[in-house]
Design a protein that fits this description.
The protein is α/β, with parallel strands linked by helices. It has twelve helices and 24 strands. It binds flavin mononucleotide (FMN) and fe (ii) ion (2 copies).
């Protein structure tokens, strides 16, 4: 695809990665992703904002050649992570006069991660500006969304914010701008759940920080550009500020069907009490979907048989994932089946120290569940429905 003009002199020069299927060697990418780089030409100076994943450096180089860019004055690094910074060394080599602009913290990281020479840097403080002539770039420090060094770049005259990973979505598309808000909402939630959810309070702070900037366009570093930014700002405000919803997330695994019977029963019991349940078979589920469901669920129930004295490894993985993304759940329970004994509950509980949850009663059954076990599952469903009501989770 060709470079795309956002405004006269402002171009998308990034790379669309249609084929990538896994991010951070963790999160599936059903719709691919993109690494967005932007070129801003002022009357006197030219800046390149972020680069692309090093696997696609040639795409960026071709875009710059196509636009006949003979010199770049500033390469802005909003973020040191390699999917955006990885092509910086190559770009600095092609444009030997270019200065690399970033936060002081980012400088140290780029030196370490990419061995960039110290004399190429210009560091900028929070809200410092650089003039490109008739255009001004303002740098807004935005720590911990999602690394300590991150910042946004605001193009004042055009009211465009280059927000890097913030507001990003994992979506490969041939469109420059969002065309299908529903699709982008999903792709952005997938992105948020893995990358931003662990830093919820920092997401809140940074949303507040940019509240008073007039923003016509958000140009993130993954996914399409937002020419109607309200919807994605609102989505992030909902995810970061709102109370969880009346939802139970239920990741489960079952080898011989015993735990499965318990799952089927409690899903019915919860649904009958007006609670939404999202059930995930951990042997086949897209872990991104599970992470997304954790963004606004109030309760997690992990369902697993006992295997070699502990939880099934797939259940342990799900618990660990919920823990590292710091899901905003308020309640947790564990249900499952065993044959002779083990430490399944203790081990799972030990895996979720980051979740600030009230632990509800567990239901652990020997073999297939019987009448009394189904009654215990009904009690658990009743407790969950009541707790959600008490907290007014909608
Ligand atoms: C490989 C394997 C290891 C197991 N290890 C244990 C164990 O350490 N302790 C235990 O109580 N049961 C153990 N079991 C038995 C299962 O927990 C029991 O059969 C349970 O009912 C299976 O639940 P499911 O039908 O949901 O798979 C093991 C079963 C398998 C297949
Ligand atoms: Fe990142
Ligand atoms: Fe990124």
């Amino acid at each position: 695809m060709k470079p795309r003009e956002i405004k006269p002199g402002v171009y998308f020069v990034g790379a669309v990665d249609w084929d990538r299927r896994l991010f951070d060697s963790l999160i599936p990418l059903p719709d691919g992703t993109s690494y967005n780089s932007y070129l801003v030409k002022g009357s006197e100076k030219t800046a390149l904002i972020d680069t692309v994943d090093p696997t696609m450096e040639q795409v960026l180089v071709n875009h710059l050649d196509e636009l006949k860019i003979k010199s770049i004055d500033y390469v802005i690094a909003n973020h040191a992570e390699q999917d955006h910074s990885g092509s910086i060394p190559g770009i600095l080599e092609r444009y030997p006069k270019a200065k690399l602009v970033c936060t002081p913290r980012c400088k140290g990281m780029l030196v370490d991660l990419l061995l960039v020479a110290e004399d190429r840097f210009v560091t900028v403080e929070d809200r410092e500006t650089i003039s490109l002539g008739d255009r001004t770039l303002e740098f807004i420090h935005a720590p911990w969304v999602h690394w300590p060094e991150t910042m946004f770049t605001y193009l004042r005259e055009d009211k465009i914010i280059f927000s890097c990973d913030f507001f990003g979505s994992h979506l490969a598309t041939s469109n420059l701008y969002v065309t299908d808000e529903g699709q982008v909402y999903e792709a952005a939630k997938r992105y948020y759940s893995e990358i931003m959810m662990p830093f919820r309070t920092n997401v809140q702070k940074n949303l507040e920080k940019i509240k008073d900037y007039p923003i016509d366009i958000i140009s993130p570093s993954h996914g399409p550009v937002y020419d109607k930014p309200e919807f994605i700002i609102k989505a992030h405000r909902d995810w970061a500020f709102c109370e969880p919803r009346n939802i139970v997330v239920l990741p489960y695994v079952s080898m011989h069907g015993s735990t499965r019977r318990m799952v089927t029963h409690i899903v019915e019991a919860l649904a009958g009490r007006g609670v939404t349940v999202k059930q995930f078979d951990l042997t086949v589920t897209d872990l991104g979907k599970l992470a997304m469901a954790l963004v606004d669920a109030a309760t997690i129930i992990i369902a697993t048989p006992t295997v070699h004295a502990g939880p099934h490894p797939a259940a342990a993985y799900a618990a660990f994932l919920a823990n590292v993304v710091r899901a905003n759940v308020k309640f947790a329970s564990i249900i499952g089946s065993y044959g002779w004994g083990g430490k399944t509950v203790d081990q799972l509980v030990a895996m979720i120290p980051n979740l600030k949850v009230e632990l509800l009663p567990t239901v652990i059954v020997k073999g297939y569940p019987r009448e009394a076990d189904f009654a215990a599952l009904d009690d658990l469903a009743e407790t969950i429905a009541r707790k959600h009501k008490e907290h007014d989770f909608k």
